[in-house]
Structure formats: structure tokens, C-alpha cells
Amino acid sequence: MTIDFNSLIHSVYYVQIQMKNVTRLCHTKSVITVNGQYPGPPIVAREGDRVVVNVTNHVTNNVTIHWHGVRQLRSAWADGPAYITQCPIRTGQREWWNADTETVISQALQNGGGPNVSDAYTINGLPGLLYNCSVKDTFRLKVTPGKTYLLRIINAALNDELFFGIANHTVTVVEADAVYVKPFQTDVILITPGQTTNVLFTAKSQTAPNTTFIMSARPYVTGTGTFDNSTTVGILEYGSNLTASNSSISFPALPALNDTSFAANFSLKIRSLGSKKFPAAVPQKVDRQFLFTVGLGLNPCPNGQTCQGPNGTKFAAVNNISFVLPTAALLQAHFFGHSKGVYNSTFPDNPPFLFNFSGTPPNNTRTLNNTRVKVVPFNSSIQLVLQGTSFVGPESHPLHLHGYNFFIVGQGVGNYNATTDPSNFNLVDPPERNTVGVPKGGWVALRFRADNP
């Protein structure tokens, strides 16, 4: 096979990260924008095109840019979270292409709480007509009767899984995290922070006069913490200028906030294009196996600080280790041989203390504060089981693996059983993703090849 490189497009974009005043809900706030736009401008490319994005940071904080759904092969230093794989772009500096990293991290380290509860959810930056002082800030999508449309849906919320649906319209899911899936129809999708889902829908060939169809999104909540219990809406417009004041308005029937049954069933519907004759490229055998517990822990609040965790404590841990922000980028420290004092390579393969992960938590819920990494051989096949815990309160945890896609070969409720559960793994057509939600009180098993250092 030959490739005609002359047919490929070499596109160059210039991106300015800058602050801009944005008014929503009758309040004006200064937010980080891309080229003064919120949301930012699209970058359009075909598969195989070369795209160069030059980024200049004009805000006072360091920033990083990360590409969800685009694997940065052998270039982790230009992709991923700040201080982990890449150095953030400093103020006034420029680089080749998530925003304000340090403010959110600093707040979390000081008080132990999660991110602030949002004022509203938005669709393309617009809260919608259900919020006070927001009728004019409602996203509208004009459609032609009988025409089929592709919606690229992205959950850009920081910490909330979302249900999304369009009133009286069935959508066909065709892609998840930039990977084609076996098409299936549904009235509602569930999407985790950082995930993308492409769906097709066909505009109705006939509609009653003055009918407005609402598209809406609201949270899927499994934890006990405070959250934004509100709904953002947009309007599906047929032809002429329909408004929300028309006589007939149809809202989608979204699942209950805590509908774990819908969440589990929806996840099981997502399958890759593999078949028994042509199975997916999931590793059939693995070289290394890990079990990571994901949940919360309780540590005493440092003197002189006010912490937002229960009883004045702070929390968050994987395998009972709470992450400590390094003093230098981990990848940089490794490359120059300066890892001593920055991180150590003793992250455990399994939980250091065994207990009933999804049951009654042990009396000691403290965590170890440290900066640890797990080192694996290049090109080894990895099986990683993420086990949710009941510390403080069980909840669903979204997790993204920077620089990789993985196959979700299994998931379940309760504690993972290394003896019996692997026999039920899907090694034929498991979904291939880069972001997953660890189910409340349950586990999810991932397989991938460590080929992108």
C-alpha cells in the first residue's frame, strides 16, 4: 500500500490562551478562553493530516493542553496533566498545543474538598432556559425534517457524569472516545467526564405546528457529597424560528439521578466492532496484573488550615496512597536522571491492606501521602482492575489514561474476584476507550499494551 502524502493537509493553528469576561446567569466572571472564545474554536482535520498548533499562554497561571481521543505517540512530553508527563506552559510563553491547573490543585491541597459545585451545567457554554436569567443563553440547533445528523457529544464537566437525551427522538450510538462501536439505539446516553460519544439522529419528517423539542442533560449521582442538582437544556428547532414560548414543548424523560441500573446496562451495550472471526486487538494474555483501589480516605487537617472533608479531614487515594504534587515534571525528572526526591517507583501492585472494599470500611481510613509511580516494561500487556471502595461514601469515579486507549474487558458490582471473574471477560468485542467510570461499589477491568512511554 502506498500513501499519497501530497493529498494530506498540513494545517497550522495559532492559539491564544487568554482571560475574557463572560456573562451568564446575570453575573459576569473572568474565564479562560481560547482565542477569546468560550467554548473555543474547532480544529478541523482528516485522519492522517498533520496539524501543528502553536499555543501562547497569556494568563497569569501555568496551563496545559491535552488532546482527548488523539493518541500522542512518543510525545508524552507535549500531552497530559501538568507536572506528570509535561511541564505546563508558563505565563507569556508559547508551546505546541486543561486550563488553569494550579488554582484547582492548590485549593484541593489546602482544604481536601472536591472542586466547587458549579452554578449551572451548559450546552456549548450556554446554561439554557431553566436557569434564572438565562432564557437568551440557550443553545439552539436548527434541523431539516427527514435529514440525519451526527452529534459529537463531549462531557466537559469537571467531575459529573451526565445523562443526555432529546425529547421524542431516538439516537444511534456509533462511536465512543474516537473509536467506532457496534451501532445501537437508545433514548438517553450516559457520558463520563472526559468521554466523547458520537450519535446519529434523524429529524422527524412531520411535526405538529409550533412544536419545540428540548435536549437536556443532568447529573448521574452515586455519591453522598454536594452536587449541582440542576438541568441544562437546548432547543431542537424545526425550520422557522420556534421559541420556548410555543404552545407545545416536549422534554426528554431522563433516568433518575441515581439510576445505577441504567448506567450499568448502558455501559454493557457499548461494544467494539470485533467479532469471533475478527476479534478486537485486546491482549488475550497479560504480562502484568494490577489491582488498584479507587476511593476516599481520611487524613487529619494540617494545623492552621480549614478542610472540607468529614470532621475536618481531607481525602482521596489510589491503593491507599494520596498523591503529592511533585516538585518537577515526572517525565522530565526521569529523562534527566533526577528522580530522587521527586518520586519513587514503589507504587504497589495490589492494595497494601485487604478489607471488604465495597462493604463496611475498616476503622483506620487514613492514607499515605506520597508521589509514587508504577514502572512497567515497554510493550508489555497490562491488566488493570480498578476497584471502587466504600471509604467515606461510595461513588462512581471517572478515570482517564493519558496517552492510551484501553479495552474494558469486564465490570461488576461488589468486590473483584481474581479467581472467577476473568472467566467472564469479553475478549472478542470489548469497548475500546480512553476514559472510564469506575462503578459505585464495583469494579472495572482494563487491558492495554504499554507501547507509548
UniProtKB/TrEMBL annotation:
CDD domains: CuRO_2_LCC_plant. GO terms for molecular function: copper ion binding; hydroquinone:oxygen oxidoreductase activity. Its EC number is 1.10.3.2. The keyword Secreted applies. GO terms for biological process: lignin catabolic process. It holds the Pfam family Cu-oxidase_2. Belongs to the multicopper oxidase family. This is laccase.
